[in-house]
Amino acid sequence: MYVSFSGEVMVRKTKEEAEQTRNAILDAALDIFCTKGYARTTFDDIAGKINLTKGAVYWHFKNKPELLIEVIKKNFYENHCRIKEFANDVKSLEDLRDVQVKIAQMVVEDANYRRFLYFTRFHMEWSEGIVKTVGNAIRSIRDIPLKELTDLLVSFQKEGKIRPDLDIEDLTLILLSLWEGMLSKFLSGGAELRRFPEVVAKSFDLIIKSIKNER
Prior knowledge:
By secondary structure, this protein is mostly helical. 79% of the residues lie in helices and 0% in strands. The protein is elongated.
């Protein structure tokens, strides 16, 4: 009885420690990717940052593309879960606008989130070879915002909240492109970051006026 209980505790502790180590590797990898770039980062760099051996890093990730995939997945899902906490009850175009403003505020206030967004857009060397290697693995998460926004706009059109003559696929691409364009501009320092939520609000107000079904 005691041996069984002790063994169970040890197994659980080992799994928890392994998960903590894995997360530490992912966090360290993003730090170094942002500093040195993906191409120049080595497993030795990552191991040294958190006092591990290179072999310990290889135990969790067999190669650098796999590590990159997991860095992207970890950061995407962590931030997506935070966003879902205030985006689960969107019932109107105005609600959608408010959600986008809150996400913009997250970008302003959360340096880690901003660093991840900056890395994926500007610092990551997206060569053809890298895209081929990791593209399929991250395509599912890349398409999540597209699907969620499309489903929401389809429901709004069915409920008569959006003009019936609008093509939802085109509208989704317009809204996402608007968001991505503003995000890239503010992340790159082309405008004052603190104004990002304000500009998002004004932009979505203009879009809402043009697509809202006035009955």
